Amino acid sequence: GAACAGLSSGASAQNLGMKAPAQNEPVVITGVTVHTVSGQTIADGHVAFSGGVITSVGAGAAPGVAGQRPKAIDGTGKHVYPGLIGANTVMGLIEVNAARATQDSNEGGEFTPEVRPAVALNPDSNIIPVARTNGVLLTGVMPMGGLVPGRVSVIRHDGWTWEDMTVRDDAGLVVNWPNVRPVSAWWMSKSDAEQLEDIKTNLRKIDDYFDAASAYFNAKFVDETVPTDLR
């Protein structure tokens, strides 16, 4: 009985967030002020979408959808904006900063370019629906730590699995460039000379690593039997 009670209590405490169902009918928002951001603001405009994809944005009434009658939403007096993008985040990788078990943003080591944060994403993070509710619909998720900690993954804030949520699992390489000058702060225990030496050392490490990567690429291009190095 005690075991069952404990299991029930743990299950009820889990918050999986709300997942959006698949769109089953076209929808059009009418009479709304549309802020396109990339172009002019449209007064008394419309936004239509079908199958989860925007199909029309413009002034006046939306074009009809063949064979289907769209669901109309009166947006008179309201404003529509494109979804915001969080460009540099650890969304879905860290739940509670103080709890090490909820942190999955740092693989360890100075060079881990093969790391893709999307595969470590927690789709049930309580932070994701909070961001989505406030209009942040996409984020760039970046690994941390080291000089080359891994790749950038772009995710959407809806889905049951990391595969559902991933827009691009590899959108570029993260390089943590060393400071270009010494830091003068109360918490810095190293002298300016020591910091400058660290900067030179880290810059040399980055140069050497990219030189090695270039040499590996050239060798692999010439001879396919060269052992594969994921990094």
Structure description:
- The protein is of the alpha/beta class and 231 residues long.
- It is 23% helix and 23% strand.
- The chain is built from 4 helices and 11 strands.
- It has helices spanning 2-13, 127-133, 162-165, 192-222; strands at 27-34, 42-50, 53-59, 71-74, 79-80, 84-89, 136-141, 150-151, 153-156, 166-168, 173-174.
- The strands form 3 sheets. Strands 1, 2, 3, 4 and 5 form a 5-stranded mixed β-sheet that branches. It has a 4-stranded mixed β-sheet with strand order 6-7-9-10. It has a two-stranded antiparallel ribbon with strand order 8-11.
- Strand 1 (27-34) and strand 2 form a beta hairpin.
- The protein is elongated.
Short characterization:
With 231 residues, the chain is α/β, with parallel strands linked by helices. The protein is built from four helices and eleven strands; from the N terminus they run αββββββαβββαββα. A hairpin with a 7-residue loop joins strand 1 and strand 2.
Topology:
Blueprint (H helix, E strand, L loop, with lengths): L1 H12 L13 E8 L7 E9 L2 E7 L11 E4 L4 E2 L3 E6 L37 H7 L2 E6 L8 E2 L1 E4 L5 H4 E3 L4 E2 L17 H31 L9
- Span between termini: 51 Å
Helical content band: 10-25%
How much is the average pLDDT?
Answer: 87
How many beta strands in the DSSP annotation?
11
Please state the overall shape, judged from the principal axes of the Cα atoms.
Answer: elongated
H/E topology pattern = HEEEEEEHEEEHEEH
Which structural class do you get from the secondary structure elements?
A: alpha/beta
What oligomeric state best describes the polypeptide chains here?
single chain
Number of helices: 4
Radius of gyration of CA atoms, rounded to a whole number: 24 Å
Biggest sheet, open or closed, and with what strands and sense? 5 strands, mixed
Q: Which runs of at least 5 residues are low in confidence (pLDDT < 50)?
A: 1-13
The share of residues in extended strands comes to: 15-25%
